[in-house]
Amino acid sequence: MNQTSSLLLIAALFIGATFSDLGVAYSADPTQQYLTPGLKDPGVEEHLEHQLPLDLNFRNDRNQIIRLGDIFHDDKPVIVSMNYSNCPMLCVLQLHGLVDSLREIDLVAGQDFRIISVSLEPNEKVEQLKKTKQKYVKSYGKTVDKDGWNFLSGTPAAVSTLAQTLGIRYVYLPKKKEFSHPAVFCICMPDGKISRYHYGIEFPPKTLRLSLVEASQGKIGTAFDRFILLCFHYDASEGVYAPTAIIIMKIAGAFTILGLGLLIWYSHRVGQKRQRLAEGSTIALAGSS
Fold this sequence. Notes:
Elements: H1 2-22, E1 43-44, E2 57-60, E3 65-67, E4 78-83, H2 90-103, E5 114-119, H3 126-140, E6 149-153, H4 156-166, E7 168-169, E8 171-173, E9 178-180, E10 184-188, E11 194-199, H5 205-215, H6 223-231, E12 232-235, E13 240-243, H7 245-288
Parallel strand pairs: 4-5, 5-6
Antiparallel strand pairs: 1-7, 2-3, 2-6, 4-10, 8-9, 10-11, 12-13
């Protein structure tokens, strides 16, 4: 009984620790605090499962004109952000927050997923794109192939079309020569459909990892990741993966049945052992008489 109880206790503690570790919450839409005072227009209207316009053309940090769709292939999910190199604060904080989170997971940009950072500044110069890419790839600290993280610029029409598809609203402030925009990036499926939105400047690594695994439809990550996704669903109001009540009840029921089964098996074995001992004693007594 002690061994069986210990096994059940360890399993319960493991599941509880996993659930609590994954349930790190952050604000679902903290972008308002970063907007210019009095300016309410910039923001996000989530377009989950919308198809990105993959036929749009952009210029990359290697001075090549590429189709957006050229980056979506090989069953790899894609992180899409809209920033710009001369952003005085928010883009820096957001991209550094993304890099900090990506450093903590074992999935690697280029090998397991790709990143696209599209400049809000139309026709941002290639030299600037290259410098910005070098800064964040160096901070990332992992080997990234040339297509692992793409910094892109495009015409005003291309940038606007992509932003509208993503549901991202931004405003140019002529006096400051800055863009007012929300702090958000999207995770897209390998076919270019939008899977998840992540807001703010800090991103829980395990939440980001599960979002990537989910967007890949299980093509990346481990069997344990896929098991967790069976037990959790994405809670958009909290920005985390939370336990699914029905699934948790089924798992708890399965452990209960397993525990009862082990208890019955153990009791049966103890009963058989006692019966054999009793029979042995009876035979010994009969022999001595």
